[in-house]
Amino acid sequence: MLPWLALWAGCGDDENVAGSPGALTVLVVDQGIDPQLPAFQGKTVAGYTLSCVEQAEASGFPDPFAGQANPDASASSPDAGASDGGASVDGGGGEGREDLKAAILKALMVPDESCRLSPGLDAIGSPLADQEAQRSAWNRKVRTDVDITEDPLLAIADERLADGAFHGTSTAGIIAHDNASVRLVLVNRRFADIGEIASSLGCPEQSEIDLATALLTDPEIRRAATIQPRGQSERALVQAMIDHRVDLVNQSFGPLSRYGFEQLLTAVGCKKALELRPYFAALSDLTADADAYLPTPRALVIRAAGNEGAYLMDSGDGFDCRGARPLFSLVGSYGPTGQKSDFTNFGPCVDVFAPGEAVAAPVPGDWWMPQFGTSFAAPLVVRLLSKIMPHEPFDGAEALRRLHALRRPNNSIPRPEFPEELLYLPGRPSPLALKTSADPPARAPAVSQEQLHRIVRPLRWARQRR
Length: 466
Fold this sequence. Notes:
Layout: H1 3-9, E1 24-30, E2 44-52, H2 94-107, E3 115-119, H3 135-143, H4 152-161, H5 167-176, E4 182-188, H6 194-201, H7 206-217, H8 219-226, H9 232-243, E5 248-251, H10 258-267, H11 277-293, E6 300-304, E7 328-334, E8 352-355, E9 359-363, E10 367-371, H12 374-388, H13 396-405, H14 433-436, H15 449-463
Parallel strand pairs: 1-4, 1-5, 2-4, 5-6, 6-7, 7-8
Antiparallel strand pairs: 2-3, 9-10
């Protein structure tokens, strides 16, 4: 047994855990978490920073032929012999295909070290420090549902907060605000910028997608990828969950849907239409196998469904469609009048819907702002669970049962279950709605660095045959 698994198995005997007793421990993984937020004081038991590099050689799927001539320069086109979803890539690919497969299998024998988790969080300055004299009056307006549509500060705030740089302060702040029922483990990570996205993606050809799908479904490669040693960031995160006895995990940005990936391609200027469903289904199934191979602590994961407006029906639509999972819930968004938000992902894979439009949340400097997205529906659900569940011992399966018992027939959790002070402008159109729910089609959806790695690394395999 690996050392960190042994620690997990015996963690119930450790009585020397930081933090006050009688509170649920919530892990929040997000971008732009400011540890100085007043709501975090006395509740944060640990902070970490997740850093990733955009390098093929560090991604866990390096260039198998670095420093060599292309071993398949005279072979057939990359889509020759592409898998129908279960066949080996051995047949029909020629000697070059065999060399490619052997190189991939060799690469999968070493850990994926594209990301590293380090202790500590850096403080973030207030984006509105020059407006400090107005903060109290502004916060009072937001917290008491005063219309801010004509307030000049709205335009300033919208410009400075538009890139989501302080997103994690808001999501964790929703959970922590006026809530003695939680203690926090905060992990700061960074979204990929448009330059990183363009560099990683390029504009793939259908032949590359087909070959990558064939490689993902090859039995030997799939087995090797399933048991690939975990990198430092994954091991360290599991250890942090063990050390701090994490009960709940808030993931306000999970994996990108297939439709979101298509939006990324459009945003970086790719014009060709691609059939991506088999690729996403194969990658989703492989991810599920890898996640199941090495277990993690039994924390209940609450994840935002995503803001691409995608219909999630099966694994070809996204990584979160895996059937019943006893310790997982995917959260979509509804608006002030109870209708499904235009931006929310939806469909059979989405378990519950919570308010996700004009959710009042803090940003660094303790400014309160109306926020939009399934990203803010998820922490509202985590906050609700921290209030309705007994804390010792925490039972994630029972927590989900209680949560689902609150659902209406349309799977929404009724608005009165959430604090009204966190829900801005109830029953009225949002002053920011046009800026948030009607984004231009070419705008790149948010994706973390590690999720970008996960989506594109099989494409790197296929590109070795160019």
